[in-house]
Amino acid sequence: MSMRIRTSALTALTVAALATGMVLTAPAAGAAPKAAAPKFLSASQLPPHPTSSWTAGLVTEGFPEALGLCVSTEGMLDYDYRHREFRTDLDTSAVQLTVVTGTAGQAKALAKHYDDLIRTCADRIEKSSPDVDAEGRDYGTLQVEEGAHVRGLNTETSGGATDVALLSVGRDGRTVSVVQWGQLGDFNDAPVAAFKKTTTTAVNKLY
């Protein structure tokens, strides 16, 4: 189920990145062994929206386009990628990705790789889009299963459009979970405490 397209800085940057082939490179050959499918967040487990309820899409095979601004599959094995997208009636959206790898060691390396991509995302945005100011923030680690890390990203275009996103990477055994929440606004609008709770739930709920 596709999320409603938003005329915002993050959406425009994602589309531009996809058009230039910067992200979402097709995974390399070498599929990981299949495993029991991990469980996903439900709509009620997202940070509450003050005026609109969340709607959850279907769990879908593959890597979500919505994560393409900061995270990609470039150089990764053909792991078992699934995702679920969420939306409200307003300019707020979210997505969860789960990746089942072949071993706990592979999952640990993948989680670090994704966290590094998110950590450096603001710098990459500014280098590729000179008219955009981007700032990343580190909101720390969470003690859940094999651990999770929460970060934030704020972008502002030269025209004044601002977007804020919260992203987390967590791991349970050989499965990695990535959650992204985003809306128009800045860091003052980001529900960090609620998103940390969502991240903890997402990792605990995998199995």
Protein model, in words:
This protein has 207 residues and is of the alpha+beta class. 24% of the residues lie in helices and 30% in strands. Strands 1, 2, 3, 4, 5, 6, 7 and 8 form an eight-stranded antiparallel β-sheet that branches. The radius of gyration is 16 Å and the shape is globular. It starts with 8 loop residues before the first helix and ends with a helix. The model is unreliable at 1-9 and 11-30 (pLDDT under 50).
Characterize the largest beta sheet: strand count, sense, and whether it forms a barrel: 8 strands, antiparallel
The structural class is alpha+beta
In percent terms, what proportion of residues is strand? 25-35%
- Share of helical residues: 10-25%
Low-confidence regions: 1-9, 11-30
CA distance, first residue to last residue? 24 Å
Mean pLDDT level: 87
Q: Taking Cα atoms only, what radius of gyration do you get, to the nearest Å?
A: 16 Å
Tally of helical runs: 4
Give the overall form.
Answer: globular
Q: What is the chain-wise order of helices and strands?
A: HEEEEHHEEEEH
Quantity of strands, as a count: 8
Topology, please?
Layout: H1 9-19, E1 55-56, E2 60-61, E3 80-87, E4 92-100, H2 104-119, H3 121-128, E5 132-142, E6 148-157, E7 162-172, E8 175-184, H4 192-205
Antiparallel strand pairs: 1-3, 2-3, 3-4, 4-8, 5-6, 6-7, 7-8
Offer a concise description of the structure.
The chain is of the alpha+beta class and 207 residues long. The protein has four helices and eight strands; from the N terminus they run H-E-E-E-E-H-H-E-E-E-E-H. Mean pLDDT is 87; it is low at 1-9 and 11-30.
